[in-house]
Fold:
Amino acid sequence: MSDSRSELAGVGSGLGGPMRTSGYAWYMAALLSFAFLLSILDRYLLGVVIDAVKSDLELTDTQLGFLLGPSFVIMFLFASIPFGWLADVSSRKWTIAGGLLCWSVATAWCGLAENFTELAIARLFVGLGEAALLPSALSLIAAYFSPEKLNRGIAIFSMGSSFGRASAFAGGGALFAWFVANRGYAFPLIGENEPWQLVFITAGLVGIVFTALFILSAREPVRITAAASRPKFKAGFVLFWQQRWAYLAIFIPHGMTAAMGAMLAGWAVAFYTRNHGLDVATASSIVGFTGLICGPIGHLLGGWLNDFLHGRGMLGTQPYVLAVLLTGAASFAAIFALSTSSILAACAYGLSYGMLCAAGPTSFGGIQVPTPEQQRGVISSIFVLVYNAIGNGLGPLLVGIIGDSFFPEEGGLGPAIAASLVIVLAVALPFALFGRPAYARAVREQTARQAQLECAEA
Structure:
């Protein structure tokens, strides 16, 4: 009985997780990974049909950049902190289920949009729903996994982002091509729509069905924190401010990683169609399948690498790992953006994307290490807020603004992406390199606190 309670409650060594990892923990990681897949799929579907939307709604690249970034991120940022607090004090299962239903309905709503304003509003609600996922999901994984397997559990979860992008680009592109070939399709009660609208409607319906499965099979673990001693809302903010340089050594580099990933995901299909003359289905397939091959490898490599370093007693290395991965990813992304060969561009894109994916477990696990269990939801929500504001908020928009302002000629999208990469590195590297000592110190302090608690309990 005590082992079962410990497993569910997250009682144990090191990071406050269970002493051992159950089979159900791996199932939960996979279930949450699929939820992450759907969130990323719904987020990036716009990048698949971006030129069709531009033509049908008569939009500029700057407007498209707004739809790809700020229109999604505004509500996401507004809701991130409240959802993070809910992850600390209420049912994480039902918080995720509510978010799933919200963003799935909003994705289908994108398919009913008839102008820029309607599409922007629908994207706002996609962002609102998706804000519920990460804080609660990371908190659940930390509760179910033992410290020595935490990064691998997070790697399984974060693989959902790779499969989500692959599904968005390969699956979404194929679905778009099918609707084009069949001249659309009439959904009951909806009627006929443009092929790009039908892609959104289909994705939304899939998410609604999965919401029911999640409710039926997910279990909320027992918390070790008694209701009377649950943390106050401001406690997480106090901790963040006290350890701000330690957290920013992860938050800002990962934000720049997210910015790079968002700009590549948002503009890759348009890059292939504009700069290499490929059709949407072919371009989407290339982006999807290169991500499908390289993404999961990157996630697993990132999880294994960080568990390996942890096992060797090398604490607090995550900022350095992020700096190396980000520099490598930017180098390959520049080759992608400036290449005149579609084959070389695809190879460089895959390598860049794999390194970006390896940064996921590094960052997601990295914010758990110096954080007490009682503040993980709020700290995770601050992390999500920062990296989405930087990544999804500025990444795609930055490319659109630079392209319209400095490279308006045909073929200018590649140089616009390359110029954006320089900005990304210039911001990220100082935080990673100079913030690492503060991060390592925070990790050592939390490890010592946890050891004292375990000795007291024993």
Notes: The first helix runs from residue 2 to 9. The radius of gyration is 21 Å.
